[in-house]
Amino acid sequence: MKMIKKVIEANGAFYYDSEIVSENGNRIYRIYITSKAGVTLDLCAKISRIISPILDLEPPVNGAYTLEVSSPGIERSLKKAEHFLGSIGENIKVKLINTDKIIGKLNSFDGNVLEITEEDGEEIKINLEDIDKARTYYKW
Fold first, then answer.
1. Potential cystine with 33: which of 13, 86, 109, 117 (Cβ 3.0-4.6 Å)?
2. Does the CA dihedral 68-70-74-78 come out positive or negative?
3. What are phi and psi of 120, to 5 degrees?
């Protein structure tokens, strides 16, 4: 993974996350990248061409798979501390382990606690370990 991250960074982007999924009976190894300049199809294709031979030597899964390099999208999952840090100032949706849902603007994140201003203006603090799922969202 270190080599893949270096390749991504050498091409002006940042590694965001990766996943292995099955779609229509095919396994897909998906790598998500971000870039301050924006993620384009050309950038994804370029990085894919460079890292594909690396993954041929060190496959991420056993058996056949398809490599995809893409943007995590405007509404992206927040799983790691760096995801929350990079999303300060953005709107987020949080589903807590107790099934409560919180929607608002992420004001701060100190490594363990998120501070969110809910849509009604109320400020709330949430411990990271109380979160089941979180993602950014865009008001259309």
1. 13
2. positive
3. -85, 5
Crossing angle of helices 2-10 and 41-57, in 10° steps, is 150
Give domain limits for the chain. Answer: 2-70, 81-136
Superfamily (CATH) of domain 2-70? RimP-like superfamily, N-terminal (3.30.300.70)
CATH number belonging to domain 81-136: 2.30.30.100
Tell me, what's the pLDDT at 14? 94
Look up residue 22 and give its amino acid: S
The Cβ of residue 126 has, within 10 Å, a number of other Cβ atoms equal to 19
Q: What is the pTM of this model?
A: 0.81
